[in-house]
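EI: anyone free to look at a 297-residue chain?
SC: sure, send it
EI:
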Amino acid sequence: MPLLVKHSLREALRGIRRSGWASGASIATIAASFLVIGAFLLVSYNLSLLISRWSREVQLTVFLKEGLRSGQVSSLREQISKEEAVRSLSYISKEQALLEFKRDMRNQEGLLEGLGYNPLPASFQIQVRERFQSPEQLQELAHRLRQLPGVEDVLYGQEWIERLSLIRKLLRWGGFSLGGLLLFASILIVANTIRLAICRFEEEIGLMRLAGATWGVIRTPFVFQGILQGLIGSALSLLVLFLSFRLIQWQLHLLPSAVGYEGPQFLRISHQALALLAGGLIGGGGGLLSVRRFLGP
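SC: here you go
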């Protein structure tokens, strides 16, 4: 390790210790900023995983009108099968629909007993090819199927995917907006902390200049101090976020089976590394801002 780097790290650590509450405030502000951004990104990331899984399993339910004869049902099956977007389809009779309803609603079978008849319609369950799963293509397919004789209605789950996508975008933009304001405040607080350190070491800086030290040797420890504050703050935010994630995951251990996917995932290693890098850059930026202002370019 170059001598300048060793010297700068040693002096930066000494500066953090001597700054006390000021360095603590900088680190806490950076940690809070990254915690807000990380929480928004974590929710957005898991929504993306959920949306991707649901998108791969998109299916349409074609409800049939009452009283269709077997020949009409077969003709309708043939017409639907000719659609390029249809990967596979299965026929669900009224009787089968009733059995599935009773199986899925075991504690509420009595809901239909008082009616005296089976109100559930027969239907086709259609699996859609992946390249036809855009909202526009699904809407066009559903519209064409509704025009077929014998079709009562067509339903598909893309509406939920669109809503989740909108929520994901709002979370992402909200997190970046709020986090951006907090990060800007972090840069200013780090810069102010470094300014206080420069004022505190003003006499030492003067002695170093008299001894022939270059501006690079004098300024670099202050920039490193900002970088260390940023790294510590972002690392703390990741630790708090991970512990909170594990706690929530433990509290909601039944959630994965309820929503039909493998469960919430923590941020990828690449995301965590990027957060640490961003923390260092923000802290270093605050340090550099203060150094350039009070120690010259």
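EI: DSSP finds eleven helices and four strands in the chain.
SC: 👍
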